Amino acid sequence: MSGLEFDFSEMKNLAVSFGQVPPALKKNLVKAVAVAALKGKAEWKKAARQNAGPHLPAYPASIDYSKVRVVDGGVETEVGPNLTRKQGFAGIVEDAPGGVRGTPQRNYEKASKVIAADLTKGVLIAIEQAGKVLDG
Fold it and tell me: How would you write 88-134 as a 3-class SS string?
């Protein structure tokens, strides 16, 4: 296996890059990213529910993740507010840039920790399972 890379710099875009890997590993890497994204989504929703208050009752339900895609030798998905859902536009509260009254919520920070831990664990499991398949 060559070139397995994790990118945790921007956790709103979850990505794992890999070079030439056996098909058994590729399938399990996709699964690892999907599971980590699902757990991150749940953690983000939980944090958002705690911080939403009376003005953003539907915001936590807008937290979603996109279908996992295999692109350019890697696997990626996005976790965060879905703009097509009610109050998904309110994702601005995460960082509350200038001109917005309110303290930044940064709910994604809790999700990032869950995603990073689970993704690392999931990729290691994927590698172990692929090794068993290849060793036959």
Answer: HHHHHHHCCCCCCCCCCCCCHHHHHHHHHHHHHHHHHHHHHHHHHHH
Backbone torsions φ then ψ of 7, nearest 5 degrees: -125, 100
pLDDT tens per residue across span 39-53: 999 999 999 999 888
Instruction: Identify the three-state secondary structure at position 45.
Output: helix
Alpha-carbon distances of 122 from 27, 30, 85, rounded to whole Å = 12, 10, 29
pTM over 0.85: no
Q: What residue segments make up the domains of the chain, in order of their start?
A: 5-125
Q: Which of 124, 45, 135 is nearest to 82 (CA)?
A: 45
**For the segment 115-124, what is each residue's pLDDT rounded down to a tens digit?**
999 998 998 8
Q: Which of 36, 41, 88 is nearest to 65 (CA)?
A: 41
Phi, psi of 16 (to 5 degrees): -130, 125
**Region of 127 on the Ramachandran plot (φ > 0 left; ψ -120 to 50 alpha; else beta):** alpha
Characterize the bridge pairing of strands 63-65 and 69-71.
Answer: unpaired
pLDDT for the residue 90: 87
